[in-house]
Amino acid sequence: MRLPRVPCPVCGRPIAVAPVEAIGLGAVVDHKQESRRLVLCPGSMRRVPLTRPQGPGGAGGPTAVQQAPFA
Q: Is the pTM of this model over 0.70?
C-alpha cells in the first residue's frame, strides 16, 4: 500500500502520511531533517489534513476540514 505524501509542516519535504482514527486527518510519518543525524524532525507524527487525489487538471479537491456542513 502506498501512502499519500504531503509537505511536512516544519521542514517542507514531501513525507508520507499515515491514516489515523480522525476523519480527514493523517499523521506525518517519522522522518529526519538531516539524514546523518539521529534526531527526528519536530514535524514527525503531527496531524495534518488529507487532500483528495489530484485529477488530470492538477487541481486537488477541498480537504475534509474545508467542506461545508450538511444544510
A: no
